[in-house]
TrEMBL record:
Protein name per UniProt: 50S ribosomal protein L23
One biological process term in Gene Ontology: translation
Family, per entry: Belongs to the universal ribosomal protein uL23 family.
InterPro entries in alphabetical order: Nucleotide-bd_a/b_plait_sf (IPR012677), Ribosomal_uL23-like (IPR013025), Ribosomal_uL23/eL15/eS24_sf (IPR012678)
Sorted UniProt keywords: Ribonucleoprotein, Ribosomal protein
Record carries keyword Ribonucleoprotein: yes
Domain of life from the UniProt record: Bacteria
Native organism: Candidatus Cytomitobacter primus
Single annotated GO MF: structural constituent of ribosome
GO cellular component, one term: ribosome
Origin organism lineage: Bacteria, Pseudomonadati, Pseudomonadota, Alphaproteobacteria, Holosporales
A Pfam entry, by short name: Ribosomal_L23
């Protein structure tokens, strides 16, 4: 039990949040959630996390790795962190459940 809590807390720390772009908002109408994770999370962990925490039925998970980018901030060169973007498709019954929570 204690190991499960530690595993869950480490996964939650690796979850960075939702991605709100025009494409992500348009895809949410069709039941696709766009989420941001650290690079070492697998699809099966993402699927179980969405199923347990959000209480939705996950149909499939697609992921892509977003590479880091070099940026300048006040004349100093730095890097934006790389991350994993996950596209989680949920069932049609759960689309209304998610949109009610968001609004």
């Amino acid at each position: 039990m204690n190991q499960e809590i530690m595993l869950l807390s480490s996964i939650i720390k690796k979850f960075s949040g939702n991605i709100f772009s025009e494409k992500a908002i348009a895809m949410s109408k069709y039941g696709v959630l766009t989420l941001k994770f650290s690079k070492d999370i697998s699809k099966s962990i993402i699927k179980s996390m969405c199923k347990n925490m959000l209480g939705v039925d996950v149909i499939d998970v697609n992921t892509c790795n977003v590479k880091s980018k070099s940026k300048f901030f006040k004349g100093v060169k730095g890097k934006k962190a790389s991350f994993k973007k996950a596209f989680v498709r949920i069932s049609k019954e759960d689309i209304s459940k998610i949109t009610e929570v968001a609004s």
